[in-house]
Amino acid sequence: MKELTRAEEEIMQVLWQLESAFVKEIIEHLPEPKPAYNTVSTIVRILQQKGFVGHEAHGKSHKYSPLITKETYTKTFMKGFVKKYFSGSYKQMVSFFTQEENLSVNELEQLLDQLKKKSS
């Protein structure tokens, strides 16, 4: 699974929230300044080529829906992120964020528990 660009992820966030939508509806849920219709349409087609989005024809327009769940993408992305930046070690990642964010022992334990559940 390929990593999404920032623009692609923004559109996927809307599709995950709405579950299915026309390009016009996607635009309505994007923050200001709103991108052009053609821009969003192009990004949705790219997402379709990447296998993230499917469509259903409604006359001349298409209603798009995610083919990949947010959870599946997040899990895959996090594994790649940890591998790329922390040599595949969740402990190194947690250690880094503990130092940066001054997490308490309790918060650290909760974070480790969540990571273990999600990587299973």
Automatic annotation (TrEMBL):
Keywords: DNA-binding, Transcription, Transcription regulation. Coiled coil: none annotated. InterPro entries: BlaI_family, WH-like_DNA-bd_sf, WH_DNA-bd_sf. Belongs to the BlaI transcriptional regulatory family. This is BlaI/MecI/CopY family transcriptional regulator. It comes from Marinoscillum luteum.
